[in-house]
Amino acid sequence: MMGRKIVTGSAIRGLKETQEMLDFAAKHGVTADIELIPIDYVNTAMDRVLKSDVRYRFVIDVANTLKAP
Predict the structure, then answer these.
(1) Structurally, how many domains does the chain consist of?
(2) How confident is residue 26, by pLDDT bands cut at 50, 70 and 90?
(3) What is the mean pLDDT of the chain?
(4) Distance CA 66, CA 52 (A)
(5) CA 36 to centroid of chain Cα atoms
(6) pLDDT above 70 for 36
(7) Which pLDDT score, from 0 to 100, does residue 43 have?
(8) Cα(66)–Cα(69) distance, rounded to whole angstroms?
(9) How many whole angstroms separate alpha carbon 12 and alpha carbon 22?
(10) Which pLDDT band, with edges at 50, 70 and 90, does 2 fall under?
(11) Spatial CA neighbour of 66 closest among 38, 43, 42
């Protein structure tokens, strides 16, 4: 394939299976390590991705970003 494109899939089939997986993770304390960032940090975060300076998944805190000052 041109441009090194990758198509992937998941073994999770539907809402029922997804809920079962989330329930299992909650019951056993399985969580994800994330770095919560404000929306105005996105460009810096992208620079960090390009420099391979990212240890955890970035999650953009949209809710708190949109709150009035």
Answers:
(1) 1
(2) very high
(3) 86
(4) 29
(5) 10
(6) yes
(7) 95
(8) 9
(9) 11
(10) low
(11) 38
> Is residue 9 within a helix (H) or strand (E), and if so which, with residue range?
none
| Structure token pair of residue 17 | 């299976």
Both tokens of 35, joined, read 């770095």
Domain limits for position 51: 2-65
pTM: 0.56
Q: Give the H or E element holding residue 63.
A: helix 62-65
Query: What is the full DSSP assignment across 10-60?
Result: -S--SHHHHHHHHHHHHHTT----EEEE-GGGHHHHHHHHHTT--SSEEEE
- Residue 36 to residue 58: CA distance in whole angstroms: 6
Longest dimension (CA), the chain: 48
